[in-house]
Amino acid sequence: METTGDSHAEATIRLGQTDVRCRPLGLGTWSWGDRLVWGYGRDYDEGEVQGAFQASHAAGVTLFDTAEMYGNGQSERLLGRFIREAPGPPGPGTHDSREGGLEGTAVSAGTPLVATKFFPFPWRLRGADLIKALRGSLKRLGLERVDLYQIHWPMPLLTVEARVDALAGAVAAGLTRAVGVSNYNAADLRRAHYALARRGIPLASNQVHYSLAYRRPERDGVLQACRDLGVTLIAYSPLGMGVLTGKYGPDRPLSGMRGRRFGKQRLTELRPLLQALPQIGAAHGGASPSQVALNWLLCKETVPIPGAKNARQAQQNAGALGWRLTAEEVATLDRLSA
Ligand SMILES: NC(=O)c1ccc[n+]([C@@H]2O[C@H](COP(=O)([O-])OP(=O)(O)OC[C@H]3O[C@@H](n4cnc5c(N)ncnc54)[C@H](OP(=O)(O)O)[C@@H]3O)[C@@H](O)[C@H]2O)c1
Which terminus of the chain is less hemmed in, N or C, by CB atoms within 10 Å? Predict the structure, then answer.
């Protein structure tokens, strides 16, 4: 089953209170160029990840998440090239027409939007360090600006206010349309939001680990803080690094770092949930376990960014758009993953 809903029929949403609009499911590109965790260059190659980009783009997925850290810059290089090589609708609004002011920039519904991230190494303490890192990302991407620039992790050596001050500088320099954070707890998220608001800049998003296999944002107040503040929760590892795709289980364990995070005991605990995913999918035209798991995140009004290594995975994941689980199905999944 490669598609379920009509992904093109899914309305776009705003990232936080910004004017950046995207479909509420993106594509994560950590595995593009990463050999250590994901096996890039060994189990899959550049041609396959270009296929993932093309399938997502063709299915109407607009948000592409990368980071300077992914594959040591390789993910950004690949994403930038794939965007340049992608067929775009003619005229204003294609990815070739990003020039112009930040206000009212023409961006058509299908334009790929790029989100990347600053890594707060302990020696990067000045605002100028963030701008320099962002310019490095832009060079690798081949873009004049990105759509979302995020702080990858909080870093205790600097106050939240000092860090988001640097983000505001990136907006003022015209290098990003919007700014976000990642892995911020509820208290720091609120501080970041208010510090930016004082400068008239909305905090677009907080990107955190959230899935049916990891529901901590519901317990630690992060999901509620995002709702209170109008900040979009971008859900990373939304398929539990592959666990929720139906491929893995106690008898078919993951290997490497993924195997350490989701060991045999955890997979055994998850068994009732993993069995329910295809059953619930059957009521939606045979939706795959991945599509059901991603749809659950859409029902929580978050933006999942599943990773995909090839066209088949990307196309299937995009099929989570254009339909919704019923309230009863969401409640069943809540119970089974509690
Ligand atoms: N901000 C942060 O700190 C942070 C941290 C982690 C991730 N992220 C972001 O979130 C994105 C997604 O997270 P993730 O890559 O960790 O995990 P994920 O999206 O939960 O899982 C992705 C993996 O699942 C498998 N898969 C995906 N779709 C599939 C399908 N339809 N059928 C079968 N298998 C499928 C693939 O691996 P196999 O084929 O090998 O099983 C794929 O690489 C990342 O790419 C990155 O952009 C951000």
Answer: C
